[in-house]
Amino acid sequence: MIEFRKVSKKYDGPNGVQALSDLTLTIRDGEFVFIIGDSGAGKSTLIKLLMGEEKPSEGSVLVDGVNVGKMTSWQLPRYRRHFGVIFQDFRLLQDYTVYDNVAFAQRVAGATRRGMAKRIPKLLAHVGLEDKQKSFPSQLSGGEQQRVALARAVVNGPQYLLADEPTGNLDPANSAEVMRLLEDFNRSGTTVIVVTHDVAMVNQLRKRVVTLKDGQVFTDISEGGYQHA
Amino acid sequence: MRNLPYLLGQGLKNILRHVGPSIFSLSIMIFTIFLFDGASAIMLNINNFVREAEENVGVTVFFDEGLSEEEILKIGEKLSDYPDIQRMKFTTAQEAWENYKKVYFAGNEHLAEGYSDNNPLANSASFEIFLSDIGKQMEFVEYARSVEGVRRVNYSNVVADGLGSVAQVLQTGTVIILAVLLVVAVSLISNSIALTISMRREEIHIMRYIGASNAFIRSPLVLEGVIIGLLGALIPLGVMWFGYPAVVDHIKEKYANLVNIFGFITREQLFKFIAPISVALGVGIGLLGSFFSIKKHLKA
To answer: Do B206 and A93 make contact, defined as CB atoms within 8 angstroms?
Structure first.
């Protein structure tokens, strides 16, 4: 379970932005949640706090009861392995093949070569890229690259899947395919959190929708649609 | 440990990603360690010369005319009170004359027959004294001169003073130059690694998000420094391995007279000293360079 308890975040510096103000939010295990809001609403900060990249100025972020803001730099890597993350710009390693991009995440987690050889082809088949294992990212379409990123995010069987604007650079067909896969992983027990601007997708899937405005929860509706804050 | 081959590969890849700065750092490393190796070779040989000089060059003490052998031996006992004496060799006046004849009348022994009853070197009984520390030679000479019955003290300070001061100048000069070069080498390796960090910033960011440990992220950077450092040590050691015997042979050929007096240390003796220190120096500089760079450019 993820809990934001009265979290505020003000960035350092003379023009330090107040990104979150007294935000409280709970996401239970196995949920599929959209987090929406205008630019500057605090969506990115929410992800950074969750990943331990930033610490809250006030309040606490608890994941399975553990206070993320209090973790040391040595504890964070192991904690982050509970998360799979995908980004709008895919963030694949350009000089690695599709297989190696996914293997990279497994290697980081200490998997054996044999373990990788067993898991990765199956996973790539699951996301429809079984024949692209030896291709490089530059040889793939945007949709294919996002599916590689998705495979990389889930290869270690994370408890949480965090998607930051996953369809931002995709056409409707590819967006639908990525969302279908996210739902698929959610059905198998992974908690999915999607930060997005994709109105059509949010309206179509009818999942829980949390709208942020000025660093606070503006609305929180289960089976909601896109709310303009 | 399982990831070591992968991490090593990454370290090498990092070096090849920016060949220019890597080669520049490597060149400075090679120069630094070669300077250390070369200076060590000269210093070790000078030490060897001095040690041989200490063993072979003695101080000769002559005594007042008319003293009996018994009286001279008594003075010898007094001389032997000096603490840094390694050994003393007594030569009687008769032995001195015999030695002289062997050298100067060789082949014409009959010419010396005229002196058979009258030793022309009657007052040349002497003690040849070898010190355990050649640096104390002048102090001993002063001491010997102060002993009653001593007429003359022969010594050579060319070897002791000359080699001593050459070694001193060389050592000081080398230490200063090495210190400067070490700082330059560390900062160049550090810059080379900073370049890797900036080129791989995106990759490092991804690594963090997928839960790579600090060790996993840093190891290739540390290994990059260590590989440059190690190569920077092994290349000059290779040059020394082949170059040292060639230089020694050349000196032996050109300065045969000098070489007959002093022996050079062998390549094996030299490497016993320079190999471990050079490798430690190379790896140490590499580690230090990567440490500074990681600390400055890579926040946990």
So the answer is: yes
Q: Tell if the CB–CB gap between A77 and B3 is shorter than 8 Å.
A: no
- A107 CB neighbours in chain B (<8 A) are 3, 6
Residues B164 and B39 in one domain: yes
The CATH code belonging to domain A2-82+158-221 is 3.40.50.300
Residue whose C-alpha is closest to residue B155's, from B165, B163, B146, B144 = B144
Helix (H, G, I), strand (E, B) or coil at A181: helix
Domain of residue B241, residue span: 4-53+160-297
pTM: 0.68
The total of structural domains in chain B comes to: 2
Q: Is the pLDDT of residue B300 over 60?
A: no
- Mind listing the pLDDT tens digit for each residue in B136-165? 888 888 898 898 888 888 887 666 666 667
Question: How, if at all, do strands B85-91 and B126-131 pair?
Answer: antiparallel
Average pLDDT for A150-166: 93
Residues 185-204 of B with CB under 8 A from A: 202-203
Q: Determine whether the interchain pair B211/A83 forms a contact, defined as Cβ–Cβ distance below 8 Å.
A: yes
Binned at pLDDT 50, 70 and 90, residue A193 comes out as very high
> Which of A8-17, A27-36, B181-190 shows the highest mean pLDDT?
A27-36
Confidence of residue B96 (pLDDT cuts 50, 70, 90): confident
Task: State the average pLDDT over residues B249-273.
Answer: 83
Of residues B178, B177, B131, the one with CA closest to residue B157: B131
Same-domain status, B49 and B180:
yes
Whether residues B246 and B203 fall in one domain: yes
Residue A220: DSSP 8-state: E
Q: Which of B202, B205, B211 comes nearest A108 by C-beta?
A: B211
Residue A162 to residue A143: CA distance in whole angstroms: 17
Together in a domain, B197 and B277: yes
Cα B164 from Cα B166, distance rounded (Å): 6
Among residues of chain A, what percentage have pLDDT more than 70? 97
**Same domain for B164 and B194?**
yes
Q: Where are the domains of chain A?
A: 2-82+158-221
